[in-house]
Amino acid sequence: MTATASDLPAPDSVDLAALARETGVPEVLDELERDLVGLAPVKARIRDIAALLLVDRGRRLLGLPAEPPSLHMCFTGNPGTGKTTVAMRMAQILHRLGYVRRGHLVAVTRDDLVGQYIGHTAPKTREVLKKAMGGVLFIDEAYYLYRPENERDYGQEAIEILLQVMENQRDDLVVILAGYKDRMETFFRSNPGMASRIAHHIDFPDYSPDELHAIAGLMLARMGYRLAPDAEAVLRDYIARRVVQPHFANARSIRNALDRARLRQATRLVAATGSVVGRDELATLAAADLRQSRVFND
Length: 298
Description:
- The chain is α/β, with parallel strands linked by helices.
- 55% of the residues lie in helices and 9% in strands.
């Protein structure tokens, strides 16, 4: 009688390095390292989570008990610190290791979940959850779901539905809450049921001026632009001035600054050269394209 696979004894060892290569997780981690400047503590924590999931998969292959870990997360930090990008990479890791079926990311805010009248919130929230099943639901500025000052607010209904799904369908959906650290702490104190379901809290630090300069370089390269030699110093000066101004949003503010510099370059080229322009001119941002920012008016 031929033995079936189920009749064979479980192996007594597993090659974790080979298993990692098989899943492709190292490639995702390398992309995270390449795409995001800085954020060393964040990257280390993501690698730790990936290692936990890889070992958990190895345990299952050896027939060892492997209770599915709780994977709901909270990302805290200021705007533009890479939270959405890391959430996308986390969705890929979870998919490759078999913890979610599809590995997609659905990013929402309060307006996508909470209705404006009785009976409106539940279907809105359930529709979002339906789209996110098999992947990751990323709720930005999650503390806005709870507004205790408004007794007619329907956010609590959305929270209760989320809590139920996070507990009962955690093998098919990972929820990541995101927002400012102090506001998220207040949110969790007001919603202990939500706090108890979040296993991983990851804080995203602000970027240093040098890191912001490196981020600008990556953005320019992806867009097919470069800075003129004298524009490098202007960019560093811009960053030093901008980081201390109100409403600074880290990488997001740098991207906006480069977009405005591209607009100024386009206006300059059209006005100065008419219809004939060379490759280098099209690809180069001059110092003046940055210097015209209102940041330098102070």
